[in-house]
């Protein structure tokens, strides 16, 4: 069975640090809040998948 996860790299919308999250591609869409591992600010992570491939991704500041 293949692993339906993807490590996605992006820059923190607060401090600009290059960080990554592991996305669960078995979900059709997710929307959650995660703290930056560098500056600890909360950011909203949202993504959607299509046939277990990432089709849409965005990160927003909460402030
Ligand atoms: Zn940060």
Characterise the protein shown here.
This protein has 63 residues and is mainly beta. It is 0% helix and 62% strand. The chain has one domain (5-61). The protein has a three-stranded antiparallel β-sheet, with no helix packed on it. The model has no long low-confidence stretch (mean pLDDT 95). Bound molecules: zinc ion. Residues 12, 14-15, 17, 36, 38-39, 41 line the site of zinc ion (ZN). Zinc ion is lined by residues 12, 14-15, 17, 36, 38-39, 41.
Compute the number of structural domains. Answer: 1
Give the averaged pLDDT, no decimals: 95
Ligand types: zinc ion
Q: What is the molecular shape?
A: elongated
Structural class by SSE content = mainly beta
Order the strands across the largest sheet as they lie in space. Answer: 3-4-5
Helix content: under 10%
Distance between the termini: 40 Å
Number of helices: 0
Q: Point out poorly predicted stretches.
A: none
Total strand count, please?
Answer: 5
Radius of gyration over all CA atoms, rounded: 12 Å
**SSE sequence, one letter per element:** EEEEE
The proportion of residues in beta strands is: over 45%
**Largest β sheet strand count, sense and barrel closure:** 3 strands, antiparallel
């Amino acid at each position: 069975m293949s692993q339906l996860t993807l490590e996605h790299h992006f820059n923190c919308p607060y401090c600009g640090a290059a960080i990554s999250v592991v996305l669960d591609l078995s979900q059709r869409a997710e929307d959650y809040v995660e703290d930056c591992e560098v500056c600890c600010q909360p950011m909203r992570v949202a993504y959607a998948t299509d046939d277990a491939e990432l089709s849409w991704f965005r990160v927003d500041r909460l402030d």
